[in-house]
Amino acid sequence: MTTFTHKRVLVLFTGGTVAGNVAKSKVSQNVKSDPNSFMTILNNSVDIIKANWNIEIVPSIVELFNVDSSNIQPENWSTLAAKIQESYDDFDAFVVLHGTNTMGYIAAALSFALENINKPVVLTGAQVPLGYLGTDAVTNLVNALRMAVWEYNDVKGVMAVFGSKIITGVRVKKGTDFDYDPFNSFQTGTLGQIGRFMRIDANALQKHVGYLSKSKPLAIHGDITIENELI
């Protein structure tokens, strides 16, 4: 009889391009997505992961807010950090659907706000919204889910999974609006790659987990502010 590992995953919906929050001048359609659209994708994916990895996923999705990431504020990030703290004992991993324009900022903010976190917090989004021709939303969400429950390398902490790259939370930088791999890991290489297979760089992983402490409880620094104007 097959024994399954059970994983509870909380998906936090915050809006962005992945949800259809784009300038009308840039697109010919007007498609908006809600959390139920993404739950359908999750439900279609959990059976495949169960069959291949013997992991039974119980996904939940919560809409915290639904705004374009260009308009997101530090108080939104504080709300997100507080929600992860509130739900920490009830879930094994967290996936955050977020806009791409400020994903690097929220990834860094969460990395410092969620001190000692020893569960995966995976950020992802899309260059093309769900429901549009050529959308990358489905692939990115499924890959984020794969990373959130993957047990082979036991990767914890904040990271972004987008296109073919896995990037540690404090190294996420957007370089383009054009292609499906818009993010780079500045100053250091990527944490890993994801596609047909998943690979984690051992040296990058050592640096990634360097700020985590398995001996200390989660500490939330939830009052996120920006002291200097970004130019």
From TrEMBL:
It holds the Pfam family Asparaginase. Residues 8-197 form the L-asparaginase N-terminal domain. InterPro entries: Asp/glu_Ase-like_sf, Asparaginase/glutaminase-like, Asparaginase/glutaminase_AS1, L-asparaginase_N, L-asparaginase_N_sf. One of its GO terms (biological process) is amino acid metabolic process. One of its GO terms (molecular function) is asparaginase activity. Gene3D superfamilies: L-asparaginase, N-terminal domain. The active site is at residue 17. PANTHER family: 60 KDA LYSOPHOSPHOLIPASE, L-ASPARAGINASE. Belongs to the asparaginase 1 family. This is L-asparaginase N-terminal domain-containing protein.
